Amino acid sequence: MNAAEVIAEIKQAGGEIWAEGERLKFRDTPARLIPLIREHKTALLALLKEEQTGHKYAPAVSVVPEPAMAPQPTPATVSCRQCVHFQPGSTALGVGVCLATTNGLPPKEQRGYLAAYPMAPRRCPEYAGSPS
Predict the structure, then answer these.
(1) Considering the entire predicted model, what is its pTM?
(2) Cβ of 110: how many Cβ atoms within 10 Å?
(3) Helix crossing, 3-12 with 41-53: angle to 10°?
(4) pLDDT in tens, 48-90
(5) Is 39 buried (19+), middle (13-18) or exposed (0-12) by CB count in 10 A?
């Protein structure tokens, strides 16, 4: 889908999209179109500015990073009990151990709780999802 088709989809769904400076603004837009808006932002801005002013704008060249340069996802904010690496302690809501590390403590990037406490919110690069 190209930028013009994205605009047509938004309008057909009863939504609105417009440019304010170098920012896109939209309302009542179907959620399924949000990734396409992000993907085609430069072209959408050019089309919308052209509609507003009547002048044709050339979209800026976008640079796609190499896979090695691609942004890394930020660690998930979780609690230890949500992770399959968490081994509960012997007391209810007691301290447990993290099986992802050799010393049983959560990964080094942690701040706050040093132990693998079930309810402690943390950003964990070793998070492995809920046990099923």
Answers:
(1) 0.41
(2) 19
(3) 70
(4) 888 877 665 555 556 666 666 556 565 667 777 788 888 887 7
(5) middle
